[in-house]
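Hi Y.,

Following your request, here is the sequence exactly as I used it, all 330 residues.
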Amino acid sequence: MILGARNLITDVPGLLVGNAENHTIKSGTTVLLAEAPFTASHHTMGGAPGSRETDLLAPDKSVAQVDALVLSGGSAFGLDACSGVVDALRHDGRGFAVGPALVPIVPGAIIFDLINGGEKGWGTNPYRALGTRAYENASNTFQIGTHGAGTGALAGNTKGGLGSASFVLADGTTVGALVVANPVGDVTTPNGHLWAAPFETAGEFGGHTPDLATGLALPHNSAKVAAMMAHSERANTTIAIIATDAPLTKAQCQRLAIAAHDGIARAIVPAHTPMDGDTIFALSTTQQGDAAPDLAALCHAGAMCLTRAIGRAVVAATPAPHDLLPCWSS
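Below is the corresponding structure, written out as tokens. Let me know if you'd prefer a different format.
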């Protein structure tokens, strides 16, 4: 496996990603689009998820393809970002045709970032507008770190953020990951090393070495929990998208999403807690072909990309006024 040209999920041909954020409220939205509807499924392993239209992504449900996927801050308020994307898609003549009606299908998932130092006293829910703006900003290049849905993310003892990574397999297939890292667990060892460090590729984290100490998984203090416990324990979640141009069925996309959770567990300790809503979407931009895809290789690549994307999210995070936690880079 080698890095994609951009080391972003948009190395998968035909994919676009758009970000929109509001640094006053310390939150934002990220949308993933394709040139045409795509096959998708999902899997959730966290105990406190927040999502929209994920039931229809099960292999036995009738909707075969979707028009976009949304990752957003804002907890339940952030689910309204999907409505902004639906509005924009319909305006552009995209959606599932039902007689004269056109219905864009836009599943989404959210993180809890309502207690992160930002001003949340809005009068009108801002996320519908953020969803529309993210759609309008969609491009094959985008910023990671403190941008889009990662704007207000916090992770254990550091800021979290938006991350992405990609691999190109030996047969030319591309796999990419997009993630918002906002877990209750730590992305670093007690000594400040990234858990994802052993999986760094081509110096993408700055060439920092893994932690060689032992006993690293023993319980230790979380600055995020300390800062938020007075208000809520459900202030977490890692949400992600795995994409490939390999031809996959809905059931195979679900298997890819399930396997990709290993990528969270390699980069975050602990992962999949009762206070997290860890949810992964997986998609294929290609219709079924004659050749059977190497699903095992795709699952491995997806999990590896997700681990690296989490590491990149944390490394790319930047400081802002009223932050509750420092950036890992500082």
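Residues 121 and 233 are 21 Å apart (CA to CA).

Thanks again,
Q.
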